[in-house]
Design a protein that fits this description.
The protein is α/β, with parallel strands linked by helices. It is elongated, with a radius of gyration of 23 Å. The two termini are 45 Å apart. It binds benzoic acid (BEZ) and fe (iii) ion. The site of fe (iii) ion has 4 residues, from strand 7.
């Protein structure tokens, strides 16, 4: 904390620099780029001046970002994690997906989506052999007027019961992810795993920020969805498990009340909806009715 007194002369020097940098964009021919950079400079300089940033702190920040870059590769995206734990991902999602009537709310994408997940039929199994409690998921896809959306592509992905996505293992396994299509009435159903809590990768620089600020790396239990349909706004969201004690402290600020669902425990021996034999295991079931906003709002 600094008690530095900022004189009028000093303020004038600092403001002059902000003006100079902003004016350096005068000839930019891309109006949006000009707007983004101008605003960025105002906020960045505002931050530096507000906290009276030291040179040592600025250098530490640059070293930190350098480390974030070095640990990032095809399988690990530390910049996304950084954006997530600072709430920047969620804020961008809030801004880009304004509430639209009763449309399902969006939440954070995360780093574990993979293109070309296996296709399953309606009622198929998305677990791909990943470990966990079987969970029957069903619901509808509708537009905001209540009409069914047939043929919506529904992508789902989730961690196994040990808290890892398939891509976090060194082998080439594919599990806990799939895609399917809603039927003519907009209905869908599939088997997945009951979501369990897991930590975001926290063995890198982002993990150090969490430790330094006394924060947990844990995400509330969730199942990811991405739903696309012609003429509709793409929905990227999750459903969360009612009663999960991490709902109030999700480390990426992804929880929205409307996305918390009952996952109803079914004791071993309870008949399954499609007659599947789950052996001597208990299983769970949940319902997620999806409402898509039109693409143009
Ligand atoms: C996820 O839910 O997969 C996730 C989201 C943000 C950071 C890390 C993981
Ligand atoms: Fe996740």
């Amino acid at each position: 904390m600094t008690d530095e007194i900022v004189t009028d002369t000093q303020t004038a020097v600092e403001e002059q620099l902000v003006d100079n940098v902003v004016r350096s964009f005068d000839d930019c021919t891309d109006p949006r780029l000009k707007q983004l950079l101008t605003s960025l400079v105002h906020h960045l300089h505002g931050f530096i001046r507000d906290v009276r940033l030291t040179e040592a702190e600025w250098n530490a920040a640059i070293e930190f970002l350098t480390e974030v870059g070095h640990i990032t590769d095809d399988r690990r995206q530390e910049f996304i994690l950084l954006s997530d734990v600072l709430g920047a991902s969620m804020q961008t999602i809030n801004v880009a997906n304004p509430a639209c009537e009763n449309a399902t709310e969006a939440t954070v994408f995360g780093p574990f989506f993979v293109d070309d997940a296996p296709r399953i039929d309606l009622g198929g199994d998305a677990s791909g052999g990943a470990s966990g409690q079987p969970c029957w998921v069903e619901g509808t896809v509708r537009d905001t007027g209540g009409d069914p959306v047939p043929g919506a592509r529904i992508e789902i992905w989730e961690a196994d019961e040990d808290g890892f996505y398939d891509v976090q293992y060194d082998d080439a396994r594919v599990g806990g992810r799939a895609h399917l299509y809603s039927d003519d009435d907009g209905h869908y159903r599939f088997w997945a795993l009951t979501p369990t809590p897991y930590p975001i990768p926290h063995d890198g620089p982002v993990g150090r920020i969490l430790t330094a600020t006394g924060r947990s790396p844990m995400r509330a239990s969730h199942l990811h969805f991405m739903v696309t349909a012609e003429g509709m706004r793409t929905l990227v969201t999750h459903i969360f498990v009612s009663g999960d004690e991490l709902l109030d402290s999700d480390t990426v600020f992804g929880v929205k009340d409307s996305l918390i669902k009952e996952f109803v425990e079914q004791p071993a021996g309870t008949p399954t909806p499609d007659g599947r034999d789950v052996g001597d295991k208990s299983w769970a079931r949940t319902v997620f009715d999806i409402v898509l906003a039109p693409a143009d709002v």
